[in-house]
What we know:
Pfam family, one: HIT
Helix content: 10-25%
Bound molecules: adenosine monophosphate
Order of helices and strands: HEEEHEHE
Number of helices: 3
Distance between the termini: 36 Å
Largest sheet: 5 strands, antiparallel
Shape: globular
Radius of gyration: 14 Å
Domain HIT: 6-115
Strand content: 15-25%
Protein name: Histidine triad nucleotide-binding protein
Organism: Oceanisphaera psychrotolerans
Active site: 101
Structural class: alpha+beta
Strand order of the largest sheet: 1-2-3-5-4
Amino acid sequence: xxxxxxxxxxxxxxxxxxxxxxxxxxxxxxxxxxxxxxxxxxxxxxxxxxxxxxxxxxxxxxxxxxxxxxxxxxxxxxxxxxxxxxxxxxxxxxxxxxxxxxxxxxxxxxxxxxxx
Length: 116
Ligand code: AMP
């Protein structure tokens, strides 16, 4: 059984977060330390620690991450200029919170995909 993170508490509304969207499968909330004018995290409500634990049974929730990203990007006026979606995995990916999540970043040119 994977260990819960702070994201489970946000999903259950046990701790505050700026939640922009929630349904039966996913929750989206603003990143507490934004790296761009728009920086939203979209997470499945079920705890999946990393991409390494993804199973076929998660496909509906993980697919929903994209439809919610599209909707929130449109609401933020990002669709035409564009934006970036990122999923980090484990140490080399720079993952800090072990509850799988998609970053939605936009609102300015984001530069090259990798720093180096
Ligand atoms: P990652 O490095 O991909 O695991 O990203 C984790 C992200 O979670 C970082 O961008 C953090 O700023 C963000 N984060 C951590 N704690 C919170 C929180 N309580 N509310 C919102 N975002 C958070």
